[in-house]
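Hi Y.,

Following your request, here is the sequence exactly as I used it, all 284 residues.
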Amino acid sequence: MQDWTAAMRCGDFAAAWALAAADAPRRDPATRDDPRLPYHLRWVWDGAPVEGREVLVRCYHGLGDTLMFARFLPLLAARAATVTVEMQPRLLPLFRGLAGIRLVPFDEAAPLKPHECDLEIMDLSLALRAAPEDAPPPYIKATPAALPEGTVALCWRAGGWDDSRSVPEGLFARLQGHPLVSLVEGPTALPVLNPQGCPMDMPLTARLVAGASLVITVDTMVAHLAGALGRPVWLLLKHDPDWRWPTASERTPWYPTMRIYRQTAPGAWGAIMARVVADLAALR
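Below is the corresponding structure, written out as tokens. Let me know if you'd prefer a different format.
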């Protein structure tokens, strides 16, 4: 796992695919899509080819994971006989109209029955041997919200399962000189155009992201949404980030419009925000 993570972080996707392919035969087929496990801990794809088959793509992980790997769905549709995607209901409006793909809301209590070939959406890069540059952003679209010129959209809160990704809200009060809009659900004391916050509504959030000149966000769904839309985005990362983010670069092949600010030490958000404040001031 450490070797795979290192390969992903440095963008050596061929090495990561080789490691994952070598691990696949070690899995017990009886544990495939094991209903005794939470969805995010299940493995789905058994390594079978997708070409010419009826494929079911299951979205068992977070909203950001689905947004990140949905880029590969058109590539899958070009190879498979049929493609059905069992997607989180909140995201469905963003992907309506994908050619050759049937979208179905994922009901955790009643998942679809297996097809000829089942994959979890995060299996697509491996199954297709497709790197990020094979499906570059933007791969979703949204009508921009009518925001003042130079508006910066902010997201300081990550998912509750990893609080170490969140930045204390008060640190964002140091951002000045630009109109600000919140992408966080719930009210805020920050001087934003929408002090009541942004409802957890994907089309509305996408419109705000599309209308903003810049998005500044922690590692959460908003980062992937901004990247998928091809919008300028500054990502604030903890010192030891998730496997998908580089640790030796400010850029990532997943989202060419993204700039990465990573902690120099665990918990050191103040230093990151000092850099962000200075860089934002330079944009004026």
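Residues 209 and 226 are 6 Å apart (CA to CA).

Thanks again,
Q.
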